[in-house]
C-alpha cells in the first residue's frame, strides 16, 4: 500500500466543505487494479489526498487472444453441427482466422450420368470451407458470389481436401480462394474457387 498526492479535481471530490471526508474509486479500463482516493479537509489545514491500490476481483484483464480462441471454438461447434455438411460427410480439419481446411470422401451417389464425381458435390465442399473461413472472425458473413473452375476429374471414391484462404478483408467484404485437391500422392488439383463474402454488422451468436 502506498500514499500518493493527486490533482484532486480529477476525481470529482468536493473540497468546498471544510469538514468532510470523501472517497473516490477509479478503475482503469482493462485493469485488475482499483485506485481509491480518500480526502479529508479541515479548516486551517492543508488539503491532502491519500491513495491506495488494491486488487479488483470484479475486473478482468482483457485478453484478445483468449477471446479469439473462444470464438473459433464456438464456430467449430456450429460448423460441425451443420446438417447439410453432415449429410455430405464433410469434415472440418482446421480453422483459424481467415483460414479453414476440410475433407470429403466422394460417395457412389455423388456421381453424374457420366459416372464421374458431380460438380455440385465438389462445389459444396468448396462452399463449406468458404463459409468457415469468412465467418472465422466471429462476424456474420454470407456469400455474395462464387466462381469455380474444374481442373481435373478424379475417381468416384476419391477423398478430397480443400483449403480456404482469405486474400483480403475489408469492413464490408472479404475475398477468398478455395483450392480443392485429391488426397493422393500427386495432390491432383481438382478445382479452384473464388468467393466474395458480405460481412453483416452483427456478430455470430447475437
Please tell me how large the radius of gyration is.
29 Å
Corresponding CATH architecture of the largest domain: Roll
Which stretches of 5+ consecutive residues score pLDDT under 50? 1-11, 18-49, 57-62
Question: Given this structure, which CATH class of the largest domain is correct?
Answer: Alpha Beta
Q: Span between N and C termini? A: 42 Å
Q: Report the strand count.
A: 9
Along the chain, the helix and strand elements come as: EEEHHEEHEEEE
Strand coverage percent: 35-45%
Oligomer: single chain
CATH topology of the largest domain: Thiol Ester Dehydrase, Chain A
Question: Helix fraction?
Answer: 10-25%
Mean pLDDT reading: 80
Shape field: globular
Tally of helical segments: 3
What's the CATH H-level superfamily name of the largest domain? Hotdog Thioesterase
Counting helices, strands and paired strands, the structural category is alpha+beta
Domain unit count:
2
The biggest beta sheet is recorded as: 6 strands, antiparallel
The neighbouring-strand order within the major sheet is 4-5-7-8-9-6
Protein described:
The protein is an alpha+beta fold and 206 residues long. It folds into two domains: 48 residues, no CATH class; 140 residues, Hotdog Thioesterase (Thiol Ester Dehydrase, Chain A). The chain has three helices and nine strands. The strands form two sheets. A six-stranded antiparallel β-sheet has the order 4-5-7-8-9-6. A three-stranded antiparallel β-sheet has the order 1-2-3, with no helix packed on it. Strand 2 and strand 3 form a beta hairpin.
